[in-house]
């Protein structure tokens, strides 16, 4: 594809979307960081997904005199994917950036993501692009984990079905930098990209951002990122982040993409890996060993590479969380 000049020549309107659920203690911090962006043309949309607390009231009071921000309230809880779809439908901006209700973004986040996207469009002519911000995750123990952005290093950004392979069964391509994956809390893209992909799958209560990235990748999408850390993610716990919720969602993801996985002979692998992760988090190492053995018997090379690439890093990470310091 011949390179084309990006049409980001002026301060295009950027919609900053913040899905909110039960975030009374953190939503104002996230909202303040959104309104403090130094990009000259923004609108901020907070979608309260029928919070059980008074999050919406706090937001309403905070933006009462702020013409750049508005609040949309759901009368029933439909989940984070549904809340993001409401933001996409309500957005007036040419671009949409998602902030989480318990995160904090630096003032130059939108500006830097727009700069990186324009440079990539000018260099490649690509239009289906997901631009992720680098950041850091802070734990209550004092440990801070860097979150480098996908595609922020290397000559070629992850793109196409090969990126879907990574997200579904850890199929890695040499030379690609996968960073911290494709979380929606760090995502900025053109509104037309969200529309082209069909938004987020509201049937998924977790990993809906991974599913969005898989579908974008299968359409030929490019995944790029900023080198500079631009947001702070505060590690929190909630019922929808439990090992059980994660296992169910990851299995549902494999089921959804079964038609793609079966010809590659990776459906069983994608279906079983969440079980392995689940038993690790439950500290049932007997069941973990059994699941790994089953994976090993069916996919000896893939399972060995996967566990060697991720297992030691996972153990160091968990040890650092407990100790409150970097490994």
Cα distance spanning the termini: 44 Å
Named CATH architecture of the largest domain: Alpha-Beta Complex
Number of strands: 9
- Sheet/helix structural class: alpha/beta
**Number of discrete domains:** 2
Q: Report the portion of residues in β strands.
A: 15-25%
CATH H-level superfamily of the largest domain = Spore Coat Polysaccharide Biosynthesis Protein SpsA, Chain A
Q: How is the CATH topology of the largest domain named?
A: Spore Coat Polysaccharide Biosynthesis Protein SpsA, Chain A
**Succession of helices and strands:** EHEHEHEEHEEHEHHEHHHHH
Q: Please summarize the sheet with the most strands.
A: 9 strands, mixed
Fraction of residues in helix: 40-55%
**What is the overall silhouette?**
globular
Detail the poorly predicted runs.
none
Integer-rounded radius of gyration: 20 Å
Helix segment tally: 12
The first-level CATH class name of the largest domain: Alpha Beta
Short synopsis of the structure:
With 327 residues, the protein is of the alpha/beta class. It contains 12 helices and 9 strands. Helix 5 packs antiparallel against helix 7 (208-218).
């Amino acid at each position: 594809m011949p390179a084309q000049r990006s049409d980001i020549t002026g301060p295009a309107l950027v919609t900053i979307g913040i899905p909110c659920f039960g975030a009374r203690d953190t939503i104002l911090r996230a909202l303040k960081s959104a309104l403090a962006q130094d990009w000259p043309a923004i609108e901020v949309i907070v979608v309260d997904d029928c919070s059980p607390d008074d999050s919406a009231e706090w937001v309403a009071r905070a933006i009462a005199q702020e013409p750049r921000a508005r609040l949309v309230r759901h009368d029933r809880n439909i989940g984070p994917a549904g809340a993001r779809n409401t933001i996409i439908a309500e957005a007036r901006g040419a671009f949409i950036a998602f902030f989480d209700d318990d995160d904090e973004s630096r003032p130059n986040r939108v500006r830097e993501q727009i700069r990186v996207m324009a440079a990539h469009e000018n260099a490649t002519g690509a239009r289906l692009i997901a631009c992720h911000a680098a950041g850091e995750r802070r734990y209550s123990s004092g440990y801070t984990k860097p979150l480098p952005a996908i595609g922020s290093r290397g000559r070629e950004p992850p793109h196409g079905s090969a990126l879907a392979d990574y997200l579904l069964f850890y199929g890695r391509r040499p030379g690609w930098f996968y960073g911290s994956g494709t979380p929606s809390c760090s995502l900025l893209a053109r509104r037309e990209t969200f529309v082209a992909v069909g938004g987020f799958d509201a049937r998924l209560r977790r990993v809906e951002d991974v599913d969005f990235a898989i579908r974008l990748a299968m359409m030929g999408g490019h995944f790029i990122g900023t080198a500079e850390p631009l947001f702070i993610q505060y590690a929190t716990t909630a019922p929808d982040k439990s090992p059980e919720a994660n296992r169910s969602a990851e299995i549902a993801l494999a089921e959804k993409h079964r038609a793609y996985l079966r010809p590659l002979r990776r459906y069983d692998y994608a279906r079983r890996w969440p079980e392995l992760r689940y038993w690790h988090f439950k500290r049932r190492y007997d069941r973990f060993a059994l699941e790994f053995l089953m994976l090993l018997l069916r996919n000896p090379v893939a399972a060995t590479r996967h566990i060697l690439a991720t297992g030691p890093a996972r153990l160091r990470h968990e040890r650092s969380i407990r100790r409150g310091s970097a490994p």
